[in-house]
User: Which sequence fits this backbone?
C-alpha cells in the first residue's frame, strides 16, 4: 500500500497498529490478517493498493524478514520505489496509449523492474546492516597514531 493523501491506520492482528501518511508505504506479508481504515473521520484519504505474488522463495523471504508488516517512511528507498511503481502502474491503466493486452504487458514489465530494484535495495540494506565498521571508521583495519 502506498498513501497519496490523508492518513491510514493498519491493524495487523496480534502484532501492531500503525498510522501513516502521504509518501509512506507498507508491504503486508501473505496470509497476514489485517484491517485498513482512514485514520480521520473528517479528512479524505487516497491510497494505492496492489496485490502481487513472488515466485522466488529467496526474495519473498527477504521481503518478509526485512520490511514486511512495518511502516516504510516516505524518506526510505523502498517507500520511494513503491510510490514510483504505483504511480507508473496507475498511469498505465489511465492512459489510452496501449490496448488492454499491451497495458497488461507494460504493467508486468513495471512489476518485474520493481522486483529487480527492490532486490537491489534489499541487498544494500543487508550490506549496511552487516557492515563491520561505521562509516566514520577506517575499513582497512590500520592503526591510527597521533
Assistant:
Amino acid at each position: 500500500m502506498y498513501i497519496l493523501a490523508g492518513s491510514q491506520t493498519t491493524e495487523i492482528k496480534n502484532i501492531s497498529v500503525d498510522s501513516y501518511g502521504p509518501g509512506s508505504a507498507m508491504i503486508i506479508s501473505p496470509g497476514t490478517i489485517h484491517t485498513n481504515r482512514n485514520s480521520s473521520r473528517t479528512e479524505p484519504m487516497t491510497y494505492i493498493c496492489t496485490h502481487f505474488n513472488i515466485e522466488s522463495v529467496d526474495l519473498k523471504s527477504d521481503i518478509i524478514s526485512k520490511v514486511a508488516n512495518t511502516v516504510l517512511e516516505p524518506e526510505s528507498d523502498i517507500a520511494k520505489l513503491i510510490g514510483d511503481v504505483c504511480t507508473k502502474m496507475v498511469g498505465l491503466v489511465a492512459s489510452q496509449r496501449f490496448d488492454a493486452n499491451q497495458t497488461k504487458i507494460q504493467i508486468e514489465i513495471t512489476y518485474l523492474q520493481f522486483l529487480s530494484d527492490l532486490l537491489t535495495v534489499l541487498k544494500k540494506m543487508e550490506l549496511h546492516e552487516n557492515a563491520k565498521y561505521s562509516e566514520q571508521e577506517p575499513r582497512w583495519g590500520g592503526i591510527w597514531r597521533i
Notes: The chain has a mean pLDDT of 86. The helical segments are 57-66, 77-94, 100-129.
